[in-house]
């Protein structure tokens, strides 16, 4: 049975390492005004009632699939998506993006292809790409390149989503993912692709997939900025989760219990699970399983929010609720799992 840890990503060790990185909080004193910590973001004041947030992230080993297929014109969408979707979790509107590309050699044609995706991502997020950096570092890289982005966002103090207003009985609405997005690919690659001792050739088309395997895994990460901000304008969002690394384990950071009962994973997830003989518990701890972003809202607003998202052409459904016990419960395939 394959696990993320056996593939090379040890979640427990990573969490232990993160707990050792608390000293940066000593630097908060260098900023005048109150620093606000939410479950997923740290915001700093620009003025008494106006806050800013800054996030950074990358696409990880998805660049290896871009290399494998020689298709580099969408990986920039993923890089933008990872940061703008993180930015909005606290209620902030993304206001600026920068990128950082570490590359073996600055080939103009390759960089032009990467830029296409960055521009498409910025357009979808309605946020300017205001700068970046390219570093030729061949001795540091096994991949042809690696790409990270940073995003700055702004929000009024009264609109910051802290998660503190979440209550028993609140509803979780899931926003559909495009597929695997940019997380769990270290495990997926080693199960699916012969290049990494998996089962299939890159351009095989296993049963259930509409595209060759490598293109299915390269489907760009969905960007939820416009739809999220539209909902936030009209309704109170009590909590928001970008379902990326650690998948449904992320909900533990909200310090409530959550029960999920609606999953419609795309065929790629079934292929990963069956080929790698992965447990359901591991699947829901690594992959988004069909929902890329989640918002927690009041029960009485649920139908109107789902209807609004439908008008915005966003596939969204009720996927769970807040429960009393501080546990993450997954109901799937007639089984009840506790993460």
From TrEMBL:
Residues 169-330 form the PurM-like C-terminal domain. Coiled coil: none annotated. GO terms for cellular component: cytosol. The keyword Chaperone does not apply. Pfam families: AIRS, AIRS_C. Pathway: Purine metabolism; IMP biosynthesis via de novo pathway; 5-amino-1-(5-phospho-D-ribosyl)imidazole from N(2)-formyl-N(1)-(5-phospho-D-ribosyl)glycinamide: step 2/2. InterPro entries: PurM-like_C_dom, PurM-like_C_sf, PurM-like_N, PurM-like_N_sf, PurM_cligase. Keywords: ATP-binding, Ligase, Nucleotide-binding. It catalyses: 2-formamido-N(1)-(5-O-phospho-beta-D-ribosyl)acetamidine + ATP = 5-amino-1-(5-phospho-beta-D-ribosyl)imidazole + ADP + phosphate + H(+). Residues 46-155 form the PurM-like N-terminal domain. GO terms for molecular function: ATP binding; phosphoribosylamine-glycine ligase activity; phosphoribosylformylglycinamidine cyclo-ligase activity. One of its GO terms (biological process) is adenine biosynthetic process. Its EC number is 6.3.3.1. It comes from the Bacteria. It is an enzyme of class 6 (ligase). Belongs to the AIR synthase family. This is Phosphoribosylformylglycinamidine cyclo-ligase.
């Amino acid at each position: 049975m394959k696990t993320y840890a056996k593939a090379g990503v040890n979640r427990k060790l990573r969490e232990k390492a993160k707990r050792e990185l608390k000293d940066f909080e000593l630097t908060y004193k260098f900023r005048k005004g109150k620093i606000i910590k939410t479950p997923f973001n740290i915001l700093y004041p620009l003025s008494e009632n106006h806050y800013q947030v800054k996030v950074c992230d990358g696409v990880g080993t998805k660049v290896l699939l871009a290399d494998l297929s020689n298709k580099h014109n969408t990986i920039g969408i993923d890089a933008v998506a990872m940061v703008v979707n993180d930015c909005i979790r606290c209620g902030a509107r993304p206001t600026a993006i920068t990128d950082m590309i570490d590359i073996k050699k600055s080939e103009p044609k390759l960089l032009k292809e990467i830029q296409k995706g960055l521009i498409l991502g910025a357009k979808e997020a309605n946020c300017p790409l205001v700068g970046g950096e390219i570093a030729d570092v061949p001795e540091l890289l096994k991949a042809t390149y690696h790409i990270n982005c940073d995003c700055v966002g702004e929000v009024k103090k009264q609109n910051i989503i802290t998660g503190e207003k979440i209550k028993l009985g609140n509803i979780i609405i899931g926003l559909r993912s495009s597929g695997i997005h940019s997380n769990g690919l270290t495990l997926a690659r080693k199960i699916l692709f012969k290049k990494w001792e998996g089962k299939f050739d890159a351009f095989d088309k296993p049963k259930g997939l509409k595209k060759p395997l490598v293109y299915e895994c390269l489907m760009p990460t969905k960007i939820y900025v416009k739809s999220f901000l539209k909902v936030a304008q009209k309704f109170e969002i009590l909590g928001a989760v970008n379902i990326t690394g650690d998948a449904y384990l992320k909900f533990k950071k909200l310090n409530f219990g959550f029960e999920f009962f609606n999953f419609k994973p795309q065929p790629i997830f079934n292929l990963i699970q069956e080929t790698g003989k992965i447990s359901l518990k591991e699947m829901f701890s690594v992959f988004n399983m069909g929902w890329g972003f989640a918002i927690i809202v009041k029960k009485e607003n649920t139908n109107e929010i789902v209807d609004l998202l439908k008008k915005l052409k966003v596939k969204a459904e009720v996927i769970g609720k807040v429960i009393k016990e501080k546990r993450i419960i997954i109901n799937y395939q007639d089984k009840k799992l506790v993460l």
